[in-house]
Amino acid sequence: MTVAVVQFGGSNCDRDTVQALESLGIDAELVWHADGLPEETDGVVVPGGFSYGDYLRAGAMAARSPVMAEVRAAAEAGTPVLGICNGAQIGCEAALTPGAFTTNASARFQCEHVHLRVENADTPWTSRYEAGEVVEFPVAHGEGRFEIGDEELATLEADDRILFRYCDADGEVAPAANPNGSKHNVAAVTGDEDHVAVMMPHPERVSLADIGPTDGQGVLRAFD
Amino acid sequence: MALSDSDHELVVEKLGREPTPAEAALFENLWSEHCAYRSSWPLLGAFDSEGDQVVLGPGDDAGVVELPDYTDDAGASATGDDPTGGDGSGDPTGGDGSADSTGGDGTGTYITMGIESHNHPSYVDPFDGAATGVGGIVRDTLSVGAYPIALADSLYFGDFDREHSRYLFEGVVEGISHYGNCIGVPTVAGSVAFHDDYEGNPLVNVSCLGLIDDSDRLVTGEAQRPGNKLVLVGNATGRDGLGGASFASEDLSEDAETEDRPAVQVGDPYTEKLLIECNEALIDEGLVESARDLGAAGLGGATSELVADGGLGARIDLDRVHQREPDMNALEILLAESQERMCYEVRPGNVERVRELADRYDLGSSVIGELTEGNYVCTFPDRETGERETVVDAPAEFLGEGAPYHDLPAEEPHQPERDLPGDVGLAEAFEAVVGSPDTASKEWVYRQYDHEVGVRTATRPGDDAAVLAIREAGVGLAYSAGADPNWTDTAPYDGARAVALENATNVAAKGTRPYAAVDCLNGGNPEKPAVYGGFKGIVDGLADMCSTLDVPVVGGNVSLYNDSQSGPVPPTPTLAMVGVKAGYDAPGLSLAGGGDLLLVGARALEGDAGARLGGSEYLAQFGGSDRFPALPAYPDAFVGTLAEVADAETTLATHDASHGGLAVTLAEMVRENAGATVDLEAPAKGSPEGLLFGEGAGRVVVETTDPRGVREAFDGVAPVYDLGSADGSGRLDLSLEGTELSYGAAELADLREVIGRELD
């Protein structure tokens, strides 16, 4: 499988994501947005960063770029697509996934490690974890607060489309464990089908064993 | 500000005529203190920049050192699956043969180091001033062909309790956060200090590390060949930042915040990120012969330095520069400090490809002229006739190096007499010192910086030094930066020696050997003899200790005239240092909870020096004065031994014991599940306050399961004192000559959270 890691101007977790995927034995390549997706694309990551400088609104401009139409088509054809951080903002802006990620409750950029509880272990992104398992991922964002209408959120929850929620070290999904004020502590959701997902925490930053724990490998192994 | 009479005379004599307006402005900027180091150059010869590892010393945009090759060792320590030594390659010399290498053996992996100040702009406009400081040092990294991999910021503000200090502090941190995060370069280290004398003039020092993974990619700022083209890539030029270099070379006036705003540039990190990627693509294809970033004095500064360093000249048609505003005149194009621009020397046959790549990254480009063997010449069409006129025609070397140096009178500083505050009470003093914004947790700051992008950060901020995984060479690269104004205010020379030793202790405490450094020397108005004397003290102190430690200083920056209505800043020698080790593991700063606690290097506790409080946070809190403490007798042996001890498996935790003294050091090591019981039964010379709050450098607290081994290692090198033991209590129980102090981890964390509590 070859995973295309889409590089916009301002992407900055693109190389990290390629490195993390390759460390797991998964073929990955950087794809400059203007070049379009390669023909042999078996998976897509829209990586973190500040595409177009986050001007206008985080993810808004990238979501409307031509390559995202190709990503949408690939997703509709069943190709796994993962948006991470800025990629998650782009994914929501492009309506690949529901809701929106907006300014943190603190109104500041926050870079820190947080605990996540695995909500649904029956998706390609979470099948390497147990339901209810607590993992530790880093977040690094200024606009990561998940917002969505109450009814829509209820539907998402009923359909088991929440992948991870922010929690404390004991797995308690408490307000104090919510780093950015996300509604119902949501950290990751899937699209209409579960092979499309977005998440604010960074799995690629907890995948390389030589610098620390590897809790993020499970998510990236979805491309294996 | 204009060219001084004596400079003007010199220029007229050399050119044989009156300078044109563009020339006069160019000389004024290039001969300013900021660009020409006229007051500091005579002192800077004190620095030793030689070493086997040094590839490029001071003088270019960044210093460059070659890393040792630890790829075999790193494999073993990183994966941990071969406890016998990891020599899986079957090469009998592979494992430890390279461990003593000092580099220079052709590994071809280089680290670049640069440092810069953005002090005046950050006072006038803290957000943009600090942001563009980051942009500038990152472009200095690009200039030598490197990819930026880490940033460290050392920030100095007036008293934290003042509204204005907080406004500047918040703005500066936000500016760094905005710019650094956006360009994807992690900010992993740094320092923050508060001191009354920064009230009218904060300091913002930023350093950057870059990586060159193949020696062929190294580029310098020396023009190579006449006939090659000069290509400008990046932002269009506007009227922003006019005269920034000369603005940075004057005292800040009372109205600076309103008057000087036009001299502060506005940064665009999105364009900078594109420039980083474009630069990488240009280097990939070998299209760059030499390069300079456009910083102080804009296009004029960058191009004249480039050609002067290559012993060449240039002809530049200023109207060819891609511009953002209509009707700019020659002088404006020449000197504007618009951000995010690079100038490349390119062979004529490669120009089209360079422009294509710029285009691919949505960057503007223009071919502005070519290298010659003659003078540095700029032309511009006359506005009325349209005829091309020569607006600058001067020898590049004279522009770059013709400014006479200043021989200024210096007044030798004196250390203060001992005048200690009355009885404070140890508990009150402990809480005041541990809870001071100076020594408190800086998490509020580094949490706003993306410190993990790049997936190299093995030890995160909040520890003595960050450790980065340089997998290309198997090197764990420790990175520490900072200075302590209380120390250098008390004793410029010894305080600066302590700053160098403290940074070295920081990297050694994480198991690395100090390897190279860059310095940023900040001072007040050098025309004041007392200020110049203090400045001379920090230069000599920093240089002497770096020489003693055998750490080459491969680059630096000087910022003078940090002076305002409220007086000069304390002489402030920010040092950024890197250390190297095989592999990326390092002992943490937090207690593990199961070992013995030793204090190494504590001369006062061993009774062979009086406990001094000079330069301490304790005196900053309660008033009074004292001499600065004596530094260790053998700092180089101390640092070398510490690097080995820290790397031992029996070492569970290490923490440099300096700012805030032993009190703060121990408070920082306690966490929820690990505490310590410490009994200071000192054969005391001096007071309990001296033992608990005395500062200085070259001391470390070690938690170890092999206290005998640590004592043996330091035998004859530094005194070792038995503090007590770590445990699982999550409390600090401290007994000191009859007084008992006891704090839980949560109480300590609460004391240490003062910045976040006040600002959130």
How would you characterize this protein structure?
The complex is a heterodimer of chains A (224) and B (760). By secondary structure, chain A is α/β, with parallel strands linked by helices. Chain A has a single domain (2-223), classed as Rossmann fold, CATH 3.40.50.880. Chain A contains six helices and eleven strands. Chain A has helices spanning 14-23, 60-63, 66-76, 86-93, 150-158, 217-220; strands at residues 2-7, 27-32, 43-46, 81-84, 100-102, 110-118, 134-141, 145-147, 162-167, 186-190, 196-199. Chain A is globular, with a radius of gyration of 16 Å. The model of chain A has no long low-confidence stretch (mean pLDDT 97). Chain B is α+β, with helices and mostly antiparallel strands and 760 residues long. Chain B has a seven-stranded mixed beta sheet. In chain B, helix 9 (163-183) links the parallel strand 4 and strand 5 (187-194). In chain B, helix 8 (126-143) packs parallel to helix 9, helix 20 (492-509) packs parallel to helix 21 (529-548) and helix 20 packs parallel to helix 24. The longest helix of chain B has 21 residues, at 163-183. The two termini of chain B are 41 Å apart. The model of chain B is unreliable at 75-104 (pLDDT under 50). Classes of the chains: A alpha/beta (224), B alpha+beta (760). The interface between A and B is large, with 36 and 37 residues.
SSE diagram, text form:
The complex is a heterodimer of chains A (224) and B (760).
Chain A: E1 2-7, H1 14-23, E2 27-32, E3 43-46, H2 60-63, H3 66-76, E4 81-84, H4 86-93, E5 100-102, E6 110-118, E7 134-141, E8 145-147, H5 150-158, E9 162-167, E10 186-190, E11 196-199, H6 217-220
Parallel strand pairs in A: 1-2, 1-3, 3-4, 4-11
Antiparallel strand pairs in A: 5-8, 6-7, 6-9, 9-10, 10-11
Chain B: H1 5-15, H2 21-30, H3 33-36, H4 41-44, E1 54-56, E2 63-66, H5 71-79, H6 94-97, E3 110-117, H7 119-124, H8 126-143, E4 147-157, H9 163-183, E5 187-194, E6 203-212, E7 229-234, H10 244-247, H11 256-259, H12 269-284, E8 290-293, H13 298-309, E9 313-317, H14 330-335, E10 341-346, H15 351-360, E11 364-372, E12 376-381, E13 388-394, H16 396-401, H17 426-434, H18 443-446, E14 457-459, E15 466-470, E16 475-482, H19 485-490, H20 492-509, E17 513-522, H21 529-548, E18 553-559, E19 563-564, E20 567-568, E21 572-582, E22 596-600, H22 603-606, H23 617-622, H24 635-646, E23 651-656, H25 661-669, E24 675-680, H26 688-693, E25 700-704, H27 707-713, E26 720-727, E27 731-736, E28 739-744, H28 745-752, H29 754-759
Parallel strand pairs in B: 4-5, 9-12, 17-18, 24-27
Antiparallel strand pairs in B: 1-2, 2-3, 3-6, 4-6, 7-10, 7-11, 8-10, 9-11, 12-13, 14-15, 15-16, 16-21, 17-21, 19-20, 22-25, 22-26, 23-25, 24-26, 27-28
Helix pairs in contact in B: 8-9, 8-12, 9-12, 12-15, 20-21, 20-24
